[in-house]
Amino acid sequence: MTGKIYLVQKGGTLQSMTERPYAQEVLLQELIAEYPDLLAGDQIDEAAPRRWLLMSREVKVPGEEGGPRLMSLDHLFLDQDAIPTLIEVKRSSDTRIRREVVGQMLDYAAHAVAYWSIQSIRAWFEALCESQGEDPAQLVAQFIEAEVEDDADVETFWSQVKTNLKAGRIRLIFVADEIPQELRRVVEFLNRFMDPVEVLAVEVKQYVGQGLQTLVPRVIGQTSEAQKKKSGGARSRQWDEPSFFQDLETRRGPDEAATARAILEWARPKMTQVGWGRGSTRGSFVPILNHEAADHQLFAVWTNGVVEIYFYWYQRKRPFDAEEKRRELLSHLNAIEGVSLLDEVIARRPSIPLAILKDEAALKQFLQAFDWVIQEIQVT
Q1: Mean pLDDT of the 307-324 span
Q2: Are residues 190 and 313 in the same domain?
Q3: Whether residue 247 sits in one domain with residue 109
Q4: Count of domains in the chain?
Q5: Which of 239, 238, 260 is nearest to 249 (CA)?
Q6: In 34, 140, 312, 354, which residue has its Cα 20 to 30 A from 53's Cα atom?
Q7: Which position has the higher pLDDT, 251 or 282?
Q8: Domain match, 27 and 87 both
Q9: Which of 197, 230, 263 is the last residue of a domain?
């Protein structure tokens, strides 16, 4: 059934937008390549939203070692934990999306794990960067938030890609404008029982009206049983309050642990929930405010002694999808002594050291800035 959504325009008028299928499969493929956020990384991992780095499109998969490349995967991404993420896109009108696409994806995964090499993946990425006039090393450094000059961190990332691939630690995502019930059941089953492989589907509905286009992604396949099982894998651990503060104090000392504790105590009465991360080596907590059915992740506090500001995610939700609002928050943060974030961070995830916020006045300014953020969200 064709659905509708409604946009409230300035002036109070209501804009009706009607659900429409994509005219061609390639249009959805191009949207995923250009706007990886449509893969809904914040829904996949609420506490540590997944970010995506495109390696290549139409990736060839060999049928045997050293043999011809008989299959072609729509997209290959890496996330920030170096987990290869295989994407296959279909329109709901394609009857193959009900059964055939599952066998197709498993075929890709089995042969990719067996026959892809890290050298091939890097070569695909370098070719993509060259076609776009980008520096591959610089892109990876920015993606993992390392210093551009730090070759060791970049090489460590690639080494982890190799390790994950050979261990079968990969993610499979089916993308369509509508995920049929048959595929939904299969995805939930596979995600529950395939370990360490994560299997998900992302439904990206398209709504159009009066020259506007709205895309609404939704992740399917994350049963509670699957999340519980996979959270204990080698690549991650489930952090909680005691383990977080023990690790933070060991790494950074009691003063920074006390600062993080003050932030947590500020968040508890104001937030809908506090999410605890699943990082393999670093713990985190994220204050989350739910407003009008949307979760707003404000920032992350990490056990390596930084507060990560989520500008990257703000730009997807009102009211901070407006650049002027993000710049206003940037101004509040830069008013704190010792903080000097550059203008371009309003589309990124910059960090503020907890050491700066140990100062009582600095911490007060930081929390006041996010009191303002909460107020702006709630009056939207």
Answers
A1: 91
A2: no
A3: no
A4: 2
A5: 260
A6: 354
A7: 251
A8: yes
A9: 230
Report whether pLDDT(229) > 70. no
pLDDT at position 234: 42
- The predicted model gives 283-297 an average pLDDT of 92
Pair (226, 283) in one structural domain: no
Task: Indicate whether 360 and 259 sit together in one domain.
Answer: yes
| Same-domain pairing of 128 and 249 | no
Most confident range (mean pLDDT) of 187-196, 320-329, 340-349 is 320-329
- Give CA–CA dist 261/255, Å, rounded: 10
Q: Could you tell me whether strands 351-353 and 306-309 are parallel, antiparallel, or unpaired per DSSP bridges?
A: antiparallel
Indicate the range of 11-15, 148-152, 213-217, 237-241 predicted with least confidence.
Answer: 148-152
The pLDDT value given to residue 152? 77
Instruction: Say what the pLDDT of residue 233 is.
Output: 41
CA dihedral 189, 193, 199, 205 (to 10 degrees): 20
Range of the domain at 128: 4-230
Task: Report residue 284: phi and psi, to 5°.
Answer: -155, 155
Flag whether 305 is in a domain. Answer: yes
Domain final residue, candidates 183, 203, 230: 230
| Mean of pLDDT values over 53-77 | 85
